[in-house]
Design goal:
This protein has about 60 residues and is mainly α. The protein has a domain of about 40 residues. The chain is built from four helices and no strands. The longest helix has 15 residues. The two termini are about 15 Å apart.
């Protein structure tokens, strides 16, 4: 699920993202990049609020 903020951030940053596959999460959090920050924010929300993710899935499945 993409939020409105993530969509607007993606439109603002239409260039290619750098290859960050070799970096750990602590290093990624220190990088000032709007799209990357939005992705990390979404991942953290999924971990810190798993019930929200499950309820969204249950709503879509029914």
């Amino acid at each position: 699920m993409v939020t409105e903020r993530q969509e607007s951030t993606a439109r603002a940053c239409q260039g290619l993202l750098p290859d960050l596959s070799g970096l750990d999460l602590a290093t990624l959090r220190g990088i000032d990049h709007a799209v990357l920050a939005g992705v990390i924010e979404g991942l953290v929300a999924r971990v810190t609020h798993p019930a929200d993710v499950l309820s969204d899935y249950a709503e879509r499945a029914s």
